[in-house]
């Protein structure tokens, strides 16, 4: 069984989708269902939807999140949004280093590290994404890639500060492709990630930190993924855009 230290987290990543009215409708439906969820629920929404979704979630336990941030607090950084601005807008969480940002916008571990530091300093929970590409998996580089991303992205924190962070293991080959890691592949990777956390920050932090799986999680595979002892939740893209599938994922049952 997953450690009782770690409350499952089901986080939707809406990416660059939904109109404001669709966002509000979906957020209301999620908020109404939050009482029957099998863990904590969060919605990571586009910047433009933060205010409206925040209002729709008011009074519910669903946590509001963003999908990116910039590490400076304020200043001449046209187009960027800072951690204090996200807190001011009602966010509790923020996705950092998503593979789409790494691939399409050239983000590397150094940026992930700065963004994670800024999020933690502002009191946000960063959901730090790591994961290997198909090429890297096929050429037996998965463990080296994960080790490098963890060492670089999570460098230099006090364990007490980092304990609020969440890791999302998202094999790039499984994101938006309909190809999910098998429960055994996910468990193997999560166990490896926890081992790296232990090496860097000690057993206490490693046992307490939530490691989410992301990559084509659906209503049909959520139960078997969540049954793995080191899978502490899910970061859900496509299936979080439809109430029916996301609510079923929120109500996962460990097989
Ligand atoms: C994601 O956006 O982090 C993700 C895992 O997407 P999907 O569930 O669509 O694969």
Descriptive account of the structure:
It is built from 12 helices and 8 strands. With 255 residues, it is of the alpha/beta class. It has a single domain, classed as Alpha-Beta Barrel (TIM Barrel), CATH 3.20.20.70. The protein has an 8-stranded parallel barrel, surrounded by 5 helices. Strand 3, helix 3 and strand 4 form a beta-alpha-beta unit. Helix 1 runs parallel beside helix 2 and helix 7 packs across helix 9. The mean pLDDT is 96. The structure holds phosphoenolpyruvate. The site of phosphoenolpyruvate has 14 residues, from strand 8.
Write the layout of secondary structure elements.
Elements: E1 9-13, H1 20-33, E2 40-44, H2 50-57, E3 63-66, H3 83-88, E4 93-96, H4 99-105, H5 109-122, E5 125-130, H6 134-138, H7 142-153, H8 159-162, E6 166-169, H9 183-201, H10 203-208, E7 210-214, H11 222-226, E8 233-236, H12 243-250
Helix pairs in contact: 1-2, 5-7, 7-9
